[in-house]
Write a structure and sequence with these properties.
CATH topology of the largest domain: Alpha-Beta Plaits
Number of helices: 4
Order of helices and strands: HHHEEHEE
Radius of gyration: 34 Å
CATH superfamily of the largest domain: Ribosomal protein S6/Translation elongation factor EF1B
Helix content: 55-70%
Distance between the termini: 85 Å
Number of strands: 4
């Protein structure tokens, strides 16, 4: 409370020109605060809203496509364990000696050596669609020594087959 009388005395001690300069400085500081705290964030939101809307729309379309794919997969008729195993073995044979399959119960482990990344991705899609096999575990490492610079993978993928 003692600060106010001291400020008032200091204000009264200023010349008219100094008072007007202090008022101008206070108005300028107030306008800057109003801009930085009130208007600039709102203008930034208005400027970026269109791009964010387009990005969210693209994500929504992607989610709708994934939903349609999930519904299509769910609508597919169930296949037997034997048919699924036959389809999975046939898909692994396409890799020749670079892939081997081992089956234990309702789990199949496929071991790969030097498989190109795009071929592995396509195989996983085919295993999911044709054999209804779901990947449960994957341990893959990038293979060394590919002179063309194409990513090849070594490792194994464990798949869950349909129940018997």
């Amino acid at each position: 409370m003692k600060l106010a009388p001291a400020l008032r005395a200091r204000w009264d001690g200023l010349a008219a020109r100094e008072r007007s300069l202090v008022r101008c400085a206070l108005v300028l500081v107030g306008a800057a605060l109003l801009w930085w705290l009130g208007l600039a964030p709102a203008l930034h939101t208005v400027r970026t809203a269109g791009a964010e809307h387009l990005a969210l729309q693209a994500r929504l379309e992607q989610m709708k496509a994934l939903q349609a794919q999930a519904l299509a997969l769910r609508a597919q008729p169930r296949i037997s364990y034997d048919d699924a195993l036959r389809a999975l073995r046939a898909s692994v044979q396409a890799f020749g000696g670079r892939a081997q399959i081992g089956v234990a119960g309702e789990r199949a482990t496929v071991t790969f050596r030097g498989i190109p990344a795009d071929a592995l991705a396509q195989w996983l899609v085919q295993a999911r669609l044709n054999a209804r096999a779901l990947p449960t575990d994957a341990r893959l490492t990038r293979a060394r020594g590919d002179p063309a610079g194409i990513a090849n993978w070594d490792g194994s993928v464990v798949l869950a087959l349909p129940s018997r």
